[in-house]
Amino acid sequence: MIFKDIAFEKNALYEHIIDDLLEQKYSVIDTFFNHQEVALLQNSLQQVYENDKFKKAAIGNRTNEEIDKTIRGDFIYWIDEQKRSPAEDMFFTKVNNLIDYLNRTCFLGILQKEFHYAVYPTGTFYKRHLDTFQNDDRRKLSIVCYLNDEDWTVEDGGQLTIYMPYGESETAIDLLPKAGRMVIFESQELEHEVKPVNAPERWSITGWLKTR
Ligand code: OGA
Ligand code: MN
User: Fold this and answer.
1) Is it the case that residue 84 has pLDDT exceeding 80?
2) CA 76 to ligand 1: nearest atom
3) At the N or C end, where does the chain have fewer CB atoms within 10 A?
4) Ligand nearest to the CA of 57
5) Taking the model in full, what pTM does it have?
6) How far is the CA of 126 from the centre of ligand 2 (A)?
7) Which residue is closest in CA terms to ligand 1's atom 6?
8) Residue 59 pLDDT
9) Is 25 within a domain?
10) 207 within a domain of the structure (yes/no)
């Protein structure tokens, strides 16, 4: 009789992400969401937008926050996983599959997650920072998924710049917020920023995978 280990089947994409994370603390996946999935998520964001649900993003965590436009200028809306739209359902299914895989292969112990939509109007940015709070170190991995058009250019700005420590100095890695692209990085390790946006708007879903 043949037994197949159905409990654990290797997934090339997830293995690639894990290798990147181990090697450089971040990974960029250009096709995490396909065109159709991006369109669904763009629609979902648009709905939230039309219902006027976006709020000026603050700095600090939800119990201790303050608004400072000289640090960040985006507008956000926290997604309620319990009341998810079909697009958000697709989103969380994909993210949950990744989390399951990470937990099984890397023993990361991800037990919680939180995601919000983010809109950066023209001229806004998010100054260099680390995704951790003084009183909360549960954020382990940051995930950003971009919901812009395919033809976003360098002139449109809004690059995610990741600062990689490199001996005594550092290297800045500029990533364009292109449609379907997902960036995942170690929240407590890599400083990063969002460069000023020149296009009418920059759309994304950002979130964190957290330990208990
Ligand atoms: C953040 C953040 C990066 C991006 O929301 O903390 O760093 O590319 N976002 O939107
Ligand atoms: Mn950040």
Assistant:
1) yes
2) 5
3) N
4) 1
5) 0.93
6) 8
7) 131
8) 84
9) yes
10) no
Whether 152 has a pLDDT exceeding 90, the answer reads: yes
Q: Give distance in angstroms: CA of 102 to centre of ligand 1.
A: 22
Domain membership of residue 8 (yes or no) is no
Query: Which range of residues forms the domain containing residue 117?
Result: 15-57+69-200
Query: In a 3-state reduction of DSSP, which class is residue 25?
Result: coil
Give residue ranges with CB within 6 A of ligand 1.
118, 126, 131, 144, 160, 192, 194, 204, 206
pLDDT at 83 over 90: yes
Total number of domains constituting the chain:
1
Q: Does residue 191 form part of some domain?
A: yes
- The CATH number of residue 123's host domain is 2.60.120.620
Task: Judge whether residue 177 has pLDDT over 60.
Answer: yes
